[in-house]
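The instructor's notes for this session suggest beginning with a concrete chain rather than abstract definitions. Hand out the sequence below and ask the class to guess, before any prediction is shown, which regions might be ordered.
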Amino acid sequence: MQVVHERCSGLDVHKKTVVACVRTDQGQQTRTYGTVTRELLRLCDWLQQERVSAVAMESTGIYWKPVFNLLESLDVELLVVNAQHIKAVPGRKTDVKDAEWIADLLRHGLLKASFIPDRGQRELRELVRYRRTLIDERSDVVRRIQKMLEGANIKLGDVASDVMGVSGRAILWTLAEGQSEPDQLSQLAKTSLRRKRAELGLALEGSMGAHQRSMLGRQLRHVEFLEDQIKEVSEEVEERMRPFQAAIERIDEIPGLGRRSAEAILAEIGVDMSRFPSAKHLCSWARVCPGTNESAGKRRSGATGKGNPWLRPALVEAAWSASNQKGTYYHALYRRLAARRGPKRAIVAVAHALLTAVYYILRDGVVHRDLGADHFDRLDREAVVRRNVRRLEKLGYHVSLQPMAS
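After discussion, reveal the predicted structure:
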């Protein structure tokens, strides 16, 4: 088998230890290091001493990150590899054998590196992901507030569309402070909710205990704290996103995608599309396309797989929004597929279309152009005509078509 890297190293990374195997023409050496910074610097010195040109390690949890942070400063080709792609033959398995196996695969060019962005984008990723975590946590607290209100026989959510809106917050804070008169609470309604004061008074008749008032106050303060944190993180994300402002504005023109979802997408894939050979490769990496599993001429499960746990939810959320915007290609695509394949498969297809559009916008620097709600009708006009004629004939009509004068 052809040797691609004459001097290379394979690393078996764990929480407390890193087993390193260096393969050369003279043979192999194996050493074990700790994962504290001083030990990892010793590992770097040893790899430089052995004149290693390529290093590969498994992407095991988060334990590869400290090793990667120090090794990326070396003048070596650094690969982080999916553990499923390098699984050895079952049998005798030790940390030393794993490191030797990784080094052997790397030596012969049989490893495919995972996509690891540069340090700046990794920091941006952490901020955007943390913001997403804060937003989800806020949603959890709001749901707990609604659950507690139900336990106190208060049906505020049945009347107010947003319990944490301006009117809802004023009512909740007043409840937490001890006021329980429905008529007085209903007078706190503002804007459009003022027209529902009668219904609101009925919904606010309940029996809130002292412990529930205490819980409500804590939960409201928790929501405000999380909102402050989200605002601070969003300001830092916006500052770091300034170099990509033009790309964000172009992505924002796509139906269903807003600034926050554009930031989430760019944080995960970056703006350099040269790392993805085509839009299909990007969609496959994000797992928004059917899987391929066929044997003996039989098609097995086409499940999409897990994929990026941050990018895919952002795309699916945007796809639901895009599918509800009538008069667009994405709405027509969803309606076309949902009727035959169901709403879940259809929404993944819309997410695939959105990511494909993002790919070409970033690669070619073009603006988004919607294909239109009649795109599929224009693909085969004759088929549309035949289908509708057959439907009318089944209803008992004789159909005669005349083209309209242009």
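Then share the key points. The chain has 17 helices and seven strands. The chain has a mean pLDDT of 91.
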